[in-house]
Amino acid sequence: MKVTPGRAPLAGLRERKKQMTRQAILDAAERLFDEQGFDGATVAQIADAANVSVKTLFTYFSSKEDLVFGTEESTRDALVDAVRSRAPGTPALDAVRDFVDAMVDDFDQVHGLEGFHRTIGKSAALQARLLVTFDRYEEALAKVLAEEAGAETPDPPTRLAAAQLVLLLRTVTSQEVRVLVARHPLSVQQQILRDCVGRSADMLADGLADYAVRRA
Fold it and tell me: C-alpha angle with apex 93: 190 to 75, nearest 5 degrees?
């Protein structure tokens, strides 16, 4: 088969341009959502800020809600890789805890978390979309755990374990954590988050046998 000179470099250039366009749309959406809120910023405004048409925007993202979750797939893949590549003898819980700790380190004094909460706000559509994201993470982790156990598909205990592992991520993004963090000076907010992750991981490790035992 004859190879056309320059075909591979051109394909690579096109792919890079697509990635740049996608990132430009995400950057514009993040800025406008931060300034105007999710409901206040329109798709047309985002497209204009990214120097693309609305039609082009929707070739990259299927909905306005998806603009908030532009890193969903990369985060999912990184989470799965953290569990899959953990050292022998390391529990999956420890791998996820280290992963979430690394996310906290990347929050840049939790502005990222604060911005995330501001964007989600009281939007029912975004809250529902966030649940879909966590469900997808849970599904991905359940498959990895099943593979490690030599099973073709996850069984109920595997699904339960995956759900609990994802809870560490859900805790960090919860409204309760945001309220807790906001009570403290900016200089210690990341440490508060780390402590919260640590306590949550310890609780998962200990199980729920002795938690919420009803008193007489």
Answer: 60
Domain extent, residue 101, equals: 72-206
From CA 213, how far away is CA 216, in angstroms rounded? 10
Distance CA 75, CA 69 (A): 10
Do 105 and 36 share a domain, yes or no? Answer: no
Which pLDDT tens digit goes with each residue over 99-148?
A: 999 888 776 544 556 667 667 767 888 888 899 999 999 999 999 999 99
3-class secondary structure, 152 = coil
HSE-CB for 110 with a 13 A CA cutoff: 23
What is the DSSP-derived secondary structure letter of residue 155?
Answer: -
Q: What is the reported pTM?
A: 0.80
The CATH number for 169's domain is 1.10.357.10
* AA identity, residue 20: M
Residues 89 and 160 sit within 8 Å (Cβ to Cβ): no
Q: What is Dmax (Cα atoms) for the chain? A: 82
